[in-house]
Amino acid sequence: MLGMLGDEWTLLLIQRALLGARRYGEFAAALPVSNSVLSARLQSLVTDGFLIRLEYQTNPSRSEYLVTPRSRSLWPMLVSIWEWERRWVADHAEQLPGMRHEVCGGDFAPQTTCLSCNGAASEKDVTAQWGPSGGWGRSIPATSNRRRSGGRRSGAVALFPQTMSVIGDRWAFALLVAAFVGVSRFTDFQAQLGAPPSTVAARLSVFTDEGILLSTGNGYRLTDKGRAFFPVLVTALQWTQRWYPDPDGPAVVLTHTVCGGRFAPVLVCDQCRKPLRGAQVAPA
Known about the structure:
By secondary structure, the chain is an alpha+beta fold. It has two domains: 2-72, Winged helix-like DNA-binding domain superfamily/Winged helix DNA-binding domain (Arc Repressor Mutant, subunit A), CATH 1.10.10; 78-230, Winged helix-like DNA-binding domain superfamily/Winged helix DNA-binding domain (Arc Repressor Mutant, subunit A, Orthogonal Bundle). The chain is 41% helix and 19% strand. The protein is built from 14 helices and twelve strands. Helix 6 packs antiparallel against helix 14 (230-243).
């Protein structure tokens, strides 16, 4: 998941495709992206199975890009990211719009529920353990993400600035997951992740500066803002285990302690309480 989606532009292009963009000009008009970057990312999305390129004109050649089931099923993660950035991140050039549920017509916030019992779920009542194919070694990509651009902040990072500080970095995402499962001390982060001390220190510094973690006398703990990232983590995990299954079994097993059942996230509208569907969500 990090290798595929931990990129400044990829998630935004998928989001625009899900909102109806198909042609090159539509993507270019919607996002502050250069032609060279846009062409490269669209090609990567085709190669990775997120988009299908279909030629609709031959002279001159013109193509459109259609979403696949793989990209269409990313909408819970995208909705969760949008809500977290809108609620918790202030440094946007323009205020992010809200979301409208077209079933009830209300401006809504997505709420996370448990598929097993339909009850509300949060990081406080969902536990995680490694499955047959899991472990920190598999959770941290062996190489840096493929399509990161240098050290300069791109326009996409400015749109989702703090989300990219988490999922755009292979160590940062793993460190935040470790915080969610109870790791708090510097030495424990280092031991669990197998990361160099300087790497752990740098990521902890970013998260404390952004208010995701709070440094205490005994270590680090998640803030309210950090805990609010829970829906992004569980929807990302759900998508990854669906599209990249391991024959040995799941990498991570989540349990909803309220009902005792296997936890799978379901997003519902906080206005009408009905399950959300990607095609029914629009900018407010």
